[in-house]
C-alpha cells in the first residue's frame, strides 16, 4: 500500500510538471504570436505553422486580418496544382504531404515572386526532419520558414 501511494505521488508530480511545462510552452507561443502580428502588418514575411490542425487553424485565424489580400488556400493532397486565381497570400494546408513535383512548382513560384507573395504554410509535423530525410526540398523549406511558430 505504501509503495502504491508513493508511486501515485511520483506519477502525480510528473503529471504536474508536464502540465506546467505545457503551460509555459503555450504562453511562449502566445507571446511569439503577439510579437508576430505587428510584423505581419508591416513586412508580410512567410510564416510556417506546425502542430495539430486545431492549433494552427486558430493561429491562422488570428493572423488573417494582417495578411495580404486576395488570399488563396491550397490543400496539396486535394488539388495537384497551386491555385490559378490571382493571390497575394498563398495558404498551404498540409505541407508535409507536398510531393516532389508540387514542391518544385512552389519553389519556382517563390523564386519568381520574391516579396510579391506571402506564403503561410501549415504542417502537422515539423518539416526540418523531412528535409534531413530528403523528402522535402531544403531551398523550399528555407523560403517557407522565415518565421516559424511551432505548437507543442
Structure notes:
- Helices cover 51% and strands 15% of the residues.
- With 152 residues, the protein is α/β, with parallel strands linked by helices.
- The chain has a single domain (2-150), classed as P-loop containing nucleotide triphosphate hydrolases (Rossmann fold).
- A five-stranded parallel beta sheet has the order 2-3-4-1-5, covered by helices on one side.
- The model is unreliable at 18-27 (pLDDT under 50).
Which CATH top level class fits?
A: Alpha Beta
Question: What number is the mean pLDDT?
Answer: 82
State the total count of DSSP E strands.
5
Can you write the helix and strand succession as a string?
HEHEEHEHHE
What brief labels describe this structure?
Rossmann fold, alpha/beta
Amino acid at each position: 500500500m505504501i509503495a502504491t501511494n508513493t508511486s501515485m505521488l511520483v506519477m502525480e508530480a510528473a503529471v504536474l510538471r508536464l502540465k506546467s511545462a505545457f503551460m509555459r510552452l503555450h504562453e511562449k507561443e502566445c507571446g511569439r504570436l503577439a510579437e508576430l502580428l505587428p510584423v505581419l502588418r508591416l513586412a508580410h514575411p512567410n510564416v510556417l505553422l506546425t502542430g495539430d490542425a486545431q492549433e494552427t487553424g486558430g493561429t491562422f485565424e488570428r493572423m488573417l486580418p494582417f495578411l495580404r489580400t486576395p488570399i488563396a488556400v491550397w490543400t496539396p493532397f486535394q488539388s495537384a496544382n497551386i491555385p490559378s486565381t490571382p493571390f497575394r497570400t498563398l495558404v498551404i494546408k498540409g505541407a508535409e504531404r507536398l510531393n516532389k513535383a508540387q514542391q518544385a512548382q512552389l519553389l519556382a513560384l517563390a523564386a519568381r515572386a520574391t516579396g510579391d507573395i506571402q506564403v503561410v504554410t501549415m504542417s502537422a509535423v515539423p518539416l526540418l526532419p523531412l528535409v534531413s530525410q530528403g523528402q522535402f526540398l531544403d531551398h523550399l523549406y528555407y523560403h517557407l520558414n522565415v518565421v516559424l511558430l511551432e505548437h507543442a
